[in-house]
Design a protein that fits this description.
The structure is a single chain. By secondary structure, the protein is of the alpha/beta class. Helices cover 39% and strands 21% of the residues. It has helices at residues 2-14, 47-64, 79-89, 130-141, 158-166, 177-186, 194-203; strands spanning 18-20, 26-27, 33-34, 36-38, 70-74, 93-96, 109-110, 118-126, 145-154, 171-176. It has a six-stranded mixed sheet, sandwiched between helices. Helix 2 (47-64) crosses helix 3 and helix 6 (177-186) runs antiparallel to helix 7 (194-203). The chain is globular, with a radius of gyration of 18 Å. The mean pLDDT is 93.
Length: 215
């Protein structure tokens, strides 16, 4: 798993899906200054990376959740990954909207889901965990047994870890922020001394003092 974690980290860095800019931080919608920008949708347009990602997700599900009956993607970034991984596993898939439609059948869950079915949620990345846990809650309210979450990347932020623990749900990611930061330093995407700053951001994104952290 460690070798795969590093391979996925290298892939994401190479295609620009995870881009570090500690000296010129990005601004999140929440207003938080971030040294990293993530766009795992780019894996879909890089066939070799996409294959490694989907096979990796499928491998996790085979190992941890062999009893899975349905995959459910998060809207919108997890939909394609749930579909491709579901194809590899021969499992049905669907997805959960951020809110119910206001027309037609007014579905929030798209695809066939029966009460009691065992579900694995497929997500692209997890930061504070809010959006993926909303999906878990919707599925539980529909009567599904949510076995766990699989994702491409997690920040490993304390807030997200706490939320997952309180919701009694486990996430397994192909790679994580710590691994990507280390690989980025090893391969020259960032200076080695920036790793400490990045991990300080990970520990508390709302505390902008990471910008002044020295090696």
């Amino acid at each position: 798993m460690e070798a795969l974690k590093q391979a996925i980290a290298r892939d994401l860095l190479r295609i620009g899906a995870v881009f570090f800019r500690p000296d010129e931080p990005f601004t999140w919608a929440s207003g938080i200054k971030s040294p990293v920008y993530c766009d795992n949708r780019l894996t879909l347009t890089a066939p070799q990376v996409r294959t490694r990602v989907e096979e990796g997700l499928a491998s996790i599900i085979r190992e941890k959740y062999p009893q899975a009956e349905v995959l459910m993607g998060t809207s919108t970034a997890g939909i394609a990954h749930a579909a491709i991984t579901g194809h590899l596993l021969g499992l049905p898939m669907g997805y959960v909207r951020s809110g119910a439609k206001d027309h037609g059948r007014k579905n929030q869950i798209e695809g066939k889901l029966l009460p009691g079915q065992k579900v694995v949620v497929v997500e692209d990345l997890i930061s504070t965990g809010g959006s993926v846990l909303e999906v878990v809650q919707v599925l539980r309210e529909a009567g599904a047994e949510v076995l766990g979450i699989v994702s491409i990347f997690t920040y490993g932020m304390a807030k997200g870890l706490t939320r997952l623990r309180e919701a009694q749900i486990e996430n397994t990611s192909l790679t994580d922020f710590d691994c990507i930061a280390q690989v980025a330093a090893q391969e020259g995407y960032i200076a080695p001394q920036d790793v400490r700053r990045l991990l300080a951001f990970r520990d508390d994104p709302a505390d902008e003092s990471w910008m002044e952290v020295q090696a």
